[in-house]
Each structure stands twice: as C-alpha cells, then as structure tokens.
Design goal:
It is a single chain. The protein has helices at residues 2-18, 26-35, 48-54, 59-65, 152-155, 169-172; strands at residues 39-41, 79-81, 173-174, 182-185, 191-193, 198-204, 212-217, 222-232, 239-240, 245-249, 259-266, 269-271. By secondary structure, it is α+β, with helices and mostly antiparallel strands. It has 2 domains: 18-112, LysM domain (Membrane-bound Lytic Murein Transglycosylase D, Chain A, Roll); 154-275, Glucose Permease (Domain IIA) (Distorted Sandwich), CATH 2.70.70. The strands form 2 sheets. Strands 3, 4, 5, 6, 7, 8, 9, 10, 11 and 12 form a 10-stranded antiparallel β-sheet that branches. Strand 6 and strand 7 form a beta hairpin.
Length: 280
C-alpha cells in the first residue's frame, strides 16, 4: 500500500511538471514528431538569445513558438522548438558560423517576421479645370513632398558609438566576406565598450567560434554582439550604458592579432554595422 501511494505521488509530480508554463508538453512532443519540427536541447550557460543567435532567429519569435513569457527563463535539458507549429520543414536554414547540430537533422527556413511597410504608389495631384468661356487662370498643381527616409538611428532612438577606440579607420576596420559584421583591430587587453545602452542577454563562451562573447539587447529590434574578448566584466541580465567598459580585447583562437568581432542584428538577422555606427 505504501509503495502504491508513493508511486501515485511521484506520478502526480511528473504530471504537474509537464504542464508548467514555458515547458514543452507531451502533446507538443507528439505534434513535433508528427510534423518533424526542428528543436534544440538547452545546455548549461545557454540563454534564449544565445540560442536565437546560433540559428539566426528572432528571440521573441522563438519565445512565442515555445510559449515562453518574459524574461524567457529556460533550463538545461529543456527542448526548444526552432520553428512555428504547422510549418513545412523542407527548405534550407541560414545558420551562423560553427553552430551545433540540432536534435533533428532536416534543415528548415527560419521564421522571419514581416516588418516591412510597403511604400504607397505615387499619386498625381489633380489640376482643376475651368470652363473655356471663363477667362481665368488655371489652378497650379499641388506639390507633394516626399517624407524623409528613416535612418537606423531614428528607428528606436538608439545612439551608437564604436566599441573600440580607433585611430586609423582604413587599417583598423574591415568586413569579412563571410559575415555581415566588422572586425576591429586593437591592442591586447584594450577596453571594449558597449556600443549603445541596453541589457546584457548573454555573457559566456558557449557559442563555438565566438570565444568570450557578450550580446546586448538595445530594443525590441536591435541587438549587438562582441566576440573574441580576453575577459568579460558584465554578467547576464545587467543593464549597461553606451560607452561603458564591458570587456577586454583578446585574440581569436589560431590568430596572432587582437581583433574584436562586432555585429548588429535586427529581428535576428545581421545588418551592416557601418549604417548604424558614426562615421570615423
């Protein structure tokens, strides 16, 4: 009788854990298996933002697919779905360099939120026509001025600065052909600064190919990353100010020169940092 009671209690605990908010239920697993959804098993040190970074996804979209509420707390061993339920998994995914394999090998095309606003078709202003018998001057056409184009700095009022102090742009900054980020040469141990105000959403070395990495969220749209540091000074969840020292410059494995890899992403996709950073 006692053993039966203990077994029943243990089963009840397991069922309660299965329905906790943010956890993947048995129904999710069955539907995932039926639709062959791609997933990732959380490892120690992961954050939702670091997982989204690995696979070039928007962290908010990943949270929605997994029914996670802010602040997006996850646990080692948790299964994270990398695509929305009910989507076809037959197209190739665009991954970041040196990303680990998922629990399913079939590639996918990551979900990309559509935040593009179509431009309205140009409208030709009407010209008033007067009867011929009247000797009056025709009305001049109305001129419609085009609205100014928004720049990256105007989207969320994010003010940017360079993450390293640079003396000579031509020799210190270059963009690798294999990525959308920039590599900035400096001195070993040189101070690395936050490029804009924001919250540290990842600080660690769990992403292969990035070394000691820091990721900062600046708005719902924009995040920035600082890779190949020698030492990190800011923990995850810490708020930082633009120009605050967050790390010391290090050397990428297999290289000789101290180089910072800096990248900006919008809705999980890399953008050209030179369009956001001030001119040197």
């Amino acid at each position: 009788m006692l053993n039966r009671t203990v077994s029943s209690l243990f089963l009840s605990i397991l069922l309660a854990m299965a329905v906790l908010p943010g956890c993947v239920t048995l129904e999710d697993r069955q539907r995932a298996a039926a639709e062959d959804r791609v997933s990732y098993r959380v490892k120690s040190g992961d954050s939702l933002y670091s997982i989204a970074w690995r696979f070039g996804l928007d962290a908010r979209a990943v949270a929605q697919w997994n029914r996670l509420q802010h602040p997006y707390t996850i646990f080692p061993g948790q299964l994270i779905f990398l695509s929305p339920l009910g989507t076809a998994q037959t197209q190739t995914a665009q991954r970041s360099p040196a990303m680990p394999q998922t629990s399913r090998a079939r590639p996918i095309k990551p979900y990309i939120p559509n935040h593009r606003v179509d431009k309205p078709s140009p409208v030709k202003p009407p010209v008033a026509k007067l009867p011929k018998q009247q000797n009056t001057t025709t009305t001049s056409p109305i001129k419609i001025s085009k609205p100014p184009q928004a720049t990256p700095r105007e989207i969320k009022q994010v003010r940017w600065q360079w993450p390293l102090k640079i003396k000579h742009h031509s020799s210190a900054v270059y963009q690798p052909a294999t990525s959308r980020g920039v590599q900035v040469k400096g001195r070993l141990g040189q101070s690395v600064f936050a490029a804009a105000d924001g919250k540290v959403v990842y600080s660690g070395n769990g992403l292969k190919g990035y070394g000691e990495l820091i990721i900062i969220k600046h708005s719902d749209e924009l995040i920035s990353a600082y890779a190949h540091n020698r030492k990190r000074f800011v923990p995850q969840e810490m708020w930082v100010k633009r120009g605050q020292k967050i790390a010391e410059l290090g050397v990428k494995a297999g290289e000789k020169d101290a180089v910072l890899y800096f990248e900006i992403r919008k809705f999980g996709k890399p953008v050209d940092p030179m369009a956001y950073l001030p001119a040197l």
